[in-house]
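ARCHIVE CARD
CATEGORY: sequence design from structure
SOURCE FIELD: tokenized fold
FIELD CONTENT:
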């Protein structure tokens, strides 16, 4: 499938009830400063610009990506294109400066307030378009957390609210306090646990689903097959059970139907994975804005071109059994995820 589409823009959809129109694919900016090994800064900046030319308008970061560095990295781009883009950032994961593998969560109202001020300062903006709770802190009632987030909306610091890795009941409780525009959770050919409880609640409430890691953190593209052997020291994927040892070998073999389908359609594996997310969401009757992450211009062109790939029902069926056969969890500690609390 060609990636050549000049300046043809991707289609748009609405973010939450009454929210802004955004391109049907967003851009995950995390890898530009955090988690996935060394980055070429100039190429990453050019990727942000190219994404916007192609109609990508939702840009995703978080305060914990590089201890604020990712927000600072995208800030000049955000400020230069403030009226054209929808800026999403997050609070709630507390990283240990000395050991990024150690993570805590904090949803206290006072902590949220300090986080929003930090994000606004680093991003150099007056308002955040979409502010997410990154992880649920079970020590704080979700009503209290969302109540504090709603105050930020009332004060004009934040426009819309989002939640990441929440369960269906948590989403319903939150939405009763203040409308939630978006739920961001992992959803891909490899990771479908959200389809049981989260997706039905998202649909019922008219929330937009923002699938993160739709490329299975790159594994679904065939770019690496074993994190320990192929990725650099400090790459977060080396600590993810499904990308190492025997699990990685089992999971690499699961890509065979994706590879065959990609060949048949003249597409890349990644394009098949992205088309799958869009179409799986349609099966559930949901609007989605997946946010594949990339730091490379060629890849943003390839990924956005996937919005034009439509898989047939029989092609979708071929990919259906894969998630059930994946070896290893998507995180070492699944208590950190919605599936761990369902
Ligand atoms: N809410 C949460 O808890 C949470 C968790 C994880 C991620 N996120 C967000 O979701 C975004 C996306 O998730 P993700 O980055 O973890 O995973 P992803 O989008 O599934 O995959 C990103 C990886 O795939 C590579 N890649 C991208 N396009 C490719 C292509 N066409 N061909 C080959 N490789 C390609 C990227 O490498 P290059 O960058 O080198 O191109 C990167 O290593 C993040 O950036 C972040 O904003 C949120």
């Amino acid at each position: 499938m060609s990636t050549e589409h000049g300046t043809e823009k991707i289609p748009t959809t609405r973010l939450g009830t009454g929210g802004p129109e955004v391109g049907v694919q967003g851009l995950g900016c995390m890898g530009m400063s955090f988690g996935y090994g060394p980055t070429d800064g100039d190429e990453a900046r050019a990727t942000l610009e190219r994404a916007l030319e192609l109609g990508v308008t939702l840009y995703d970061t978080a305060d914990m990506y590089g201890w604020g560095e990712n927000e600072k990295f995208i800030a000049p781009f955000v400020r230069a294109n403030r009226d054209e883009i929808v800026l999403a950032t997050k609070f709630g994961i507390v990283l240990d400066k000395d050991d990024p593998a150690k993570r805590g969560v904090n949803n206290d109202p006072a902590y949220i307030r300090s986080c929003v001020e930090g994000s606004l300062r680093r991003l150099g903006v007056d308002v955040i378009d979409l502010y997410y709770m990154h992880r649920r802190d079970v020590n704080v009632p979700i009503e209290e957390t969302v109540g504090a987030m709603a105050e930020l909306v009332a004060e004009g610091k934040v426009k819309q609210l989002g939640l990441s890795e929440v369960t269906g009941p948590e989403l319903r409780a939150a939405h009763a306090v203040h409308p939630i525009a978006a739920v961001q959770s992992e959803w891909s050919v490899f990771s479908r646990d959200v389809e049981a409880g989260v997706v039905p609640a998202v649909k019922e409430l008219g929330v937009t689903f923002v699938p993160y890691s739709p490329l299975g953190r790159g594994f679904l593209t065939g770019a690496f097959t074993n994190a320990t052997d192929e990725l650099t020291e400090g790459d977060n994927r080396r600590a993810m059970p499904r990308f190492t040892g025997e699990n990685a070998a089992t999971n690499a073999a699961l890509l065979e139907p994706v590879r065959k389908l990609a060949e048949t359609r003249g597409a890349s594996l990644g394009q098949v994975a992205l088309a799958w997310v869009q179409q799986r969401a349609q099966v559930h009757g949901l609007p989605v804005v997946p946010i594949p992450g990339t730091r490379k211009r060629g890849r943003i062109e390839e990924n956005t071109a996937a919005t034009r790939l439509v898989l047939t029902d029989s092609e979708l069926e071929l990919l259906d059994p894969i998630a059930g056969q994946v070896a290893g969890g998507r995180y070492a500690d699944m208590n950190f995820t919605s599936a761990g609390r369902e």
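CARD ANNOTATION: The pocket of NAP is lined by residues 28-31, 36, 60, 134, 164-165, 184, 212-218, 221, 223, 270, 291-296, 299, 302-303 (CB under 6 Å). The mean pLDDT is 96.
SHELF: design records, drawer C
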